[in-house]
Amino acid sequence: MDFDAGWFTSARRCESPHFNRRPFGEISLLVIHNISLPAGCFGLPYIDQLFQGCLDTSADESFADLAGLQVSAHFLIRRDGECVQYVSCEDRAWHAGVSRYGERENCNDFSIGIELEGTDTEPYTAAQYQQLTALTQALLAQYPALTAERIVGHCDIAPMRKTDPGPSFDWQRYLAALRDF
Questions:
Q1: Which of 2, 61, 107, 148 is most buried, taking the most CB atoms under 10 A from its CB?
Q2: Alpha helices of the chain — where are they, by DSSP H?
C-alpha cells in the first residue's frame, strides 16, 4: 500500500500547519513547481522550515519577503531524490495561489502540488526525475481522476505570476518515463 490516509508511505513526513480541508474532496490535477531557499542554493533546511511556518527570516536577507507567509505543498523532491511530504493528499495544501485550470479557479481546491528542489534554469537531477516518476505513478493509481493529461506546471495555472518549473524541466523526459514505467 503506497498511501495511508493520504500520506505517501515512502516519503519522509514533515507536517505543515499550512493546509485545510478540500471543499469538494476532489483530486484531479497535479501541479509541478520548483523551489530553492535561498534562490539557487540546495540541500539546506529552509524549505522544510518555510512549509512548517518556522523559517527564521533573518537567516538570509532574501528571506525578508517571506515573513508571515503561510505556504505549503504536498511534496518536495530534493536534488538527491529524497521525497518529503508536508500535507496529506486528502487535504488542501497552499501551493498554487491565485490560479486557473481551464474554467476553474482556485486550483488548490482540487490539486496536489509537488515541489522540485531547483530553479527555472538549472537542470533537474536524474534522481529527481526517477522519484517524480515513481511518485506520480503512485498518485495516478491512488486517485483515478488524475491522469497524465492533467499534469501541469505552476506556470500553466498562474501564467502571469509564475514561471516554474521553468525551461530547465524536461517535460518530454518526464512524460515518456510515465508511459514507460
A1: 107
A2: 46-52, 126-142, 154-157, 171-180
Quick check: 52 and 102 in contact, CB under 8 A? no
Comparing C-alpha atoms, which of 175, 5, 21 is closest to residue 110? Answer: 21
The yes-or-no answer on residue 103 being catalytic is no
Matching residue, cell 493529461:
149
Q: 130 Cβ partners below 8 Å, 6+ apart?
A: 81, 177
Cβ(7)–Cβ(138) below 8 Å: no
* Sheet hosting strand 75-77, strand order edge to edge: 12-13, 83-85, 75-77, 111-117, 29-35, 151-153
Cell output for 140: 495516478
pTM of the model as a whole: 0.97
- List, for residues 108-167, the tens digit of each pLDDT value: 999 999 999 999 999 999 999 999 999 999 999 999 999 999 999 999 999 999 999 999
The Cβ of residue 1 has, within 10 Å, a number of other Cβ atoms equal to 5
